[in-house]
């Protein structure tokens, strides 16, 4: 595939090496849960320590019950890197599999059950868009040093871009530390791709000079605003967390007398209205440490809410907006039948859906991750 030269950053359109893009074989499409569970366990037993299965917090029960580790994206990548498994099956979305490929050893292969599991928010900050925006922002800044910071929920080429431009990666847990790191080295921060996490982090640090950059509006006056702002927010967002609103918080308190905790990917007004805000790890810890009988309304993806309800039956755990909403469409693509197919294929010596980040992007992205780890 061709390579593109844009704004001084070389973007590789063959960022992923997808060994297999085929649809799920027909014989796997109508498995019952009982048959599927037995076959997964049989394949796991045959593979032994050769494989480690990672289940993201937002995956359904039928996935996480077969995972060696359950957690958020970077935590799971670390678990994979610490293991001796030859194959890492990441039941998550593409940027997570990329991160695992970046930090695992070269002799470990990262596999994604479904190549359709691609995070919409990560897709809101494509490398070509960012290259073009960066050129405009730097020109408007007039000599001010702008440091790019990207959320972990982004593709490897964007992580690589940030490293090359003197920036770094952050998680929702350490975003404030990443902002402070950037301000120590520059005059302003460009935060990608989640504007809500960026705005909440700026507010936490008392930064008032904040503007948004709309990459889809060619006639936007964003460049003028970006010239003076301390924080420039890329106009991206999580489609799950953006749907929570203040009315949900008020209703949970009025109708259920609930404590409310939300993810910082939620809108600023929702975070302000909630009792607490934090990463998926903090949400899990909050429920785990709650007193028996307490009610907690959780403003995040519904499958994590369901897990917490099962894991902590002594606490009343409810979804902030009810159980019929707020599931992640990308995570839904990782069907348990795909996991069955992938594991049985491995047991038969067949490798499908390997994710391999291009070498140059991998090296640079690892720099951005290392800077985060040095905070």
From TrEMBL:
> Has the keyword Iron been applied to this entry?
yes
Question: What Enzyme Commission number(s) apply to this enzyme?
Answer: 2.5.1.72
Question: What Gene Ontology molecular-function terms does this entry list?
Answer: transferase activity
Name the chain's protein.
Quinolinate synthase
Give the HAMAP family listed for this entry.
NadA_type3 (MF_00569)
Q: How is the cofactor bound?
A: Binds 1 [4Fe-4S] cluster per subunit.
Query: Which residues are involved in binding [4Fe-4S] cluster?
Result: 119, 238, 328
The signal sequence is: none
Q: Mind telling me which SUPFAM superfamilies this protein's record contains?
A: NadA-like
Its needed co-factors are: [4Fe-4S] cluster
Which residues are noted in the entry as iminosuccinate-binding? 56, 73, 151-153, 172, 263-265, 280
- What keywords tag this UniProt record? 4Fe-4S, Cytoplasm, Iron, Iron-sulfur, Metal-binding, Pyridine nucleotide biosynthesis, Transferase
Compartments, record wording: Cytoplasm
Involved pathway(s): Cofactor biosynthesis; NAD(+) biosynthesis; quinolinate from iminoaspartate: step 1/1
**Reaction(s) this enzyme catalyzes, per UniProt:** iminosuccinate + dihydroxyacetone phosphate = quinolinate + phosphate + 2 H2O + H(+)
Q: Which family does it belong to?
A: Belongs to the quinolinate synthase family. Type 3 subfamily.
What broad class of enzyme is this?
Answer: transferase
Q: What does this protein do?
A: Catalyzes the condensation of iminoaspartate with dihydroxyacetone phosphate to form quinolinate.
